[in-house]
Design brief:
It is a single chain. By secondary structure, this protein is α/β, with parallel strands linked by helices. The protein has two domains: 4-16 and 274-391, Lyase, Ornithine Decarboxylase, Chain A, domain 1 (Beta Barrel), CATH 2.40.37; 22-267, TIM Barrel (Alpha-Beta Barrel), CATH 3.20.20.10. Helices cover 30% and strands 22% of the residues. The chain has twelve helices and 17 strands. It has helices at 4-10, 22-38, 53-61, 71-80, 96-104, 115-127, 166-173, 196-216, 244-254, 269-272, 305-309, 388-391, and strands at 17-20, 42-46, 65-68, 87-89, 109-112, 132-139, 161-162, 179-185, 222-224, 262-265, 276-287, 292-296, 315-317, 327-333, 342-350, 357-360, 381-384. Strands 1, 11, 12, 13, 14, 15, 16 and 17 form an eight-stranded mixed β-sheet that branches. Strands 2-3-4-5-6-8-9-10 form an eight-stranded parallel β-barrel. α9 (244-254) links the parallel β9 and β10. α5 (96-104) crosses α6.
Length: 398
Amino acid sequence: MFNSDILQQFSDIQTPFYFYDMDLLSKSLYNLKLVSEKYGYIVHYALKANSNDRTLETVKNQGFGADCVSGNEVKKAVEIGFDAEKIVFAGVGKSDSEINFAIDNSIFGFNCESIEEIEIINELASKKNKKVSVSLRLNPDIDALTHNYLTTGLSENKFGIPLVFLDNVIFKMKNLTNVELIGLHFHIGSQIRSLKPYIKLCDKINQIQEELFENHNIKLKHINLGGGLGINYENPDNELVPDYESFFDTINKYLNVNNNQQIHFELGRSVVGQMGSLISKVLYIKNGVEKKFVILDAGMTDLIRPALYGSVHKIENISKKNIPSKICKYDVVGPVCESSDVFASQMELAETQRGDLLAIRSAGAYGEIMVSEYNLRNKPLAVYSDEMILKNKMKIAF
């Protein structure tokens, strides 16, 4: 990823910046398309993972749909040119204006998280004399075996409709003339590295579909299993492209699909996570009583995941790439005035000096998209591997 030519060009770019390997993105999308089409599955890319224009254009050009969790994400998907029939709108708190925009743009449908939301969509659709497709996001009470902040399918989570309410929701929907129930939606969490939760989800969906048919004579056209497939943060080079084949093979093996039923997914992190790295320059090597600190010009404002989730990213001293160096342990920290502005504790790196460039890997998802200007810090640049000649002359203040 960081060959000598690229490293030489990095020296002319103001740090910190995000570097995106567009060849790797293309490879990820190619593999995803190949395996998903094997089973006729429909994939909507989750914009919340990374929504810069180059990424979205590349995803859209491969024919994938868009999964949106805000009105502005729906707007962005429309502006980029995603097929409206492939745009889904999820989220626990959709505003009236967001719902109206989605209705006006004739998106595929809404993934709804409460009967109250469905009633509002019905009311707004009736004013436009339109009928809107909705899917019920159900809370299957399945542990995704991931971080507490990334688990969304347990009974105490804010997301989804509890299964005990399902019959009542369907009963109330019979009186709503401007919405049509087309499917079920599930999303049990994020950064899921085991297939066991997905097997449990398939079993739960099979059970729910059987009960829907028995109790309401309902066979739905669409089942959306959400996303959540994780990536290898610890050793990214060992798994630059996720094992989509095992993932979809598992779903195909355990999910009972009705005739003419379409199966949807909303993948984000797995598609773009490994394509991005945050490149930062070393400002100081600070000696503590028992530790050494590498102080970077990038901070939690540029990549908040370690501070927010305690997440782990592989960090490399790319200035010392291919140069024999002593290995030392450092706490890698940023300049933001918060004690949580720490990227790693006791991280092993090649002996590091002021001015060295460090790459914080696997930052293509939930990196640039979550940047803030706290402490009035500048937002980092985005640099793309196929535009290096153009981008390497760009500068920003300080």
